[in-house]
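Long-time lurker, first post. I've been practising inverse folding by hand and with some scripts of my own, and I keep getting stuck on stretches where the structure tokens seem ambiguous. Below is the full token string for one chain I'm working on. Before anyone asks, I'm not after the true native sequence, just a reasonable design that respects the backbone. If someone could post their per-position residues I'd love to compare against what I wrote down in my notebook.
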């Protein structure tokens, strides 16, 4: 009997167990050495850790598969994420947390080497990470560029100052394009992309650079650091227009989880289509375990 509740086909075995049919990409799944995971909407939602997360990470460790976390959400600093993940029972090294702020820093260094002083629409955590990277965060006077992130501390005066500086032609960078941050609360959390849309309406300018997902450079940096090829990596996330598009452009496998923003019906654009749709991480856990037990 074949079961198809996700885009993995599962078959009922004689002993009653459920096993995935690996399909046309089965050789790719056997080669996976590293999993890159989005966070909010993928391993947790808001402050609630998904029940499947810790068993999934334990299975990766058992199978000898490495992992990193990659998030566009820079409302926290890297140190904040390490601490909050630890409180959830996920012990990570700082270098395992990769953020859109890191991609923005790389863009500043590569494309705007003259920039030293930045006006930031961002949280204290984001400003701390930029400071740790060697940039001076200034109130306004003498800034070389404007950087916009997911600013949960946003106030109208800062918004006005940013719009003025952007209108004056200062280099303008956005850390990521996400329009909203996923939440279980009965509200909408406008993210960096929504803030930039407001600024565009006021100034007529789009950001000069958008550095985080879906820009594949952030994922390619992880692969270079870990010494991995694209064939050895799977990107897991809950957003089609960031996580899955980046996976496509970087040439890695993409697994879309339905635990966050995306729905199955939204998968229509071949440029951002996932290789796999899963209801949660437990399905990917079964697939990876099975791929290791299937003869080459």
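-- Answer (accepted) --
I ran through it position by position. Result:
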């Amino acid at each position: 009997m074949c079961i198809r509740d996700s885009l993995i086909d599962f078959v009922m075995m004689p002993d009653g167990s459920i096993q995935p049919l690996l399909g046309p990409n089965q050789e790719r799944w056997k080669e996976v050495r590293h999993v890159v995971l989005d966070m909010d909407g993928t391993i947790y939602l808001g402050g609630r850790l998904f029940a499947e997360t810790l068993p999934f990470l334990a299975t990766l460790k058992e199978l000898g598969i490495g992992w990193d976390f990659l998030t566009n959400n820079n409302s926290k600093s890297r140190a904040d994420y390490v601490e909050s993940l630890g409180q959830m029972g996920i012990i990570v090294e700082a270098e395992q947390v990769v953020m859109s702020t890191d991609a923005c820093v790389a863009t500043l260094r590569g494309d705007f080497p003259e920039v030293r002083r930045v006006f930031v629409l961002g949280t204290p955590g984001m400003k701390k990470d930029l400071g740790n990277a060697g940039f001076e965060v200034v109130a306004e006077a003498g800034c070389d560029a404007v950087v916009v992130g997911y600013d949960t501390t946003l106030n109208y005066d800062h918004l006005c100052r940013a719009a003025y500086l952007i209108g004056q032609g200062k280099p303008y960078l956005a850390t990521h394009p996400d329009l909203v941050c996923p939440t279980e609360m009965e509200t909408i959390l406008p993210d960096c992309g929504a803030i930039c849309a407001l600024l565009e309406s006021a100034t007529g300018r789009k950001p000069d650079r958008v550095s985080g997902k879906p820009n594949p450079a952030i994922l390619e940096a992880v692969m270079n650091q870990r010494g991995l090829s694209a064939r050895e990596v799977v990107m897991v996330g809950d957003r089609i227009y960031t996580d899955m598009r980046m996976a496509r452009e970087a040439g890695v496998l993409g697994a879309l989880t339905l635990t966050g923003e995306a729905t199955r019906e939204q998968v229509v654009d071949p440029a951002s289509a996932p290789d796999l749709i899963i209801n949660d991480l437990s399905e990917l856990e079964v697939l990876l375990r099975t791929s290791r037990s299937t003869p080459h």
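A couple of notes from the structure itself: The first strand starts at residue 2 and ends at 3. Residues 1-7, 10-14 have pLDDT under 50 and may be disordered. Happy to go over any region you disagree with.
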